[in-house]
Amino acid sequence: MKKMEPESINNSKNEEDILKEAEVVEETSAEEKECLAAQLQEINDKYLRLYAEFENYKKRANKDKDELIKYANEQLISQLLTVMDNLEMALKHSDNNISLGLVKGVENTLREFQRILEKFGLIHIDALNKPFDPSLHEAMSVVECEDMAENMVVEEFRRGYIFKEKVLRPSLVSVSKKPEIKREEVKVIEEGS
Question: How far is 11 from 69, CA to CA, in rounded Å?
């Protein structure tokens, strides 16, 4: 029988130790792989959320930029409406003492002014004899009218305007309502029934 030499015993112990260490490393490696895979998935999810948020930000920024470009002239046009109002008022209140040439000049100026503003997207709100719409009209008074349906615009004090689908200034109007029946009339109607 062969005697085992101390060196071969050490080698077999080293082999056993190496095998045990390899198993531990393999187990640790599997755990690390799972941990790394979970971390990778978490980072990937964060990346996808961040990417989606950035895409939404870009869309919002483009929409805001388009809105800014679309309504860039809104403030200027809003202030020019006062000039147009004054021209309209001058024509409305002109009397026979003013020369016909001056009246024609103001009419032409007003017409050209309106044409230019329409070219930039300004549309006047057609209010007279239309149903009252609180999104387009601002009621200044209520008038009893027998010959007109209720909530109809009977008078326009100041024109309203829409600028590129947005109400720039509502029309100032007077709205109709049916006359109230007086108590005496109610008694007569009740007695007749």
Answer: 82
Which carries the bigger pLDDT value, residue 85 or residue 6? 85
- The pLDDT of residue 108 is above 70: yes
Output Rg (C-alpha) for the chain, integer angstroms: 42
Q: How far apart are CA 91 and CA 85, in angstroms?
A: 10
Count of CB atoms within 10 A of residue 192's CB?
Answer: 6
SS3 for the chain is CCCCCHHHHHHHHHHHHHHHHHHHHHHHHHHHHHHHHHHHHHHHHHHHHHHHHHHHHHHHHHHHHHHHHHCCCHHHHHHHHHHHHHHHHHHHCCCCCCCHHHHHHHHHHHHHHHHHHHHCCEEECCCCCCECCCCCEEEEEEEECCCCCCCEEEEEEECCEEECCEEEECEEEEEEECCCCCHHHHHHHHHHC
What digits encode the pLDDT tens for the residues 138-180? 999 999 988 888 999 999 999 999 998 899 999 999 999 988 7
CA-to-CA separations, 89 to 113, 157, 172, in angstroms, rounded: 14, 11, 15
Q: Where are the domains of the chain?
A: 71-120, 124-193
Residue 7 clears pLDDT 70, i.e. is over it: no
Structure tokens at 137: 């009209």
CATH-assigned architecture of domain 124-193? Roll (2.30)
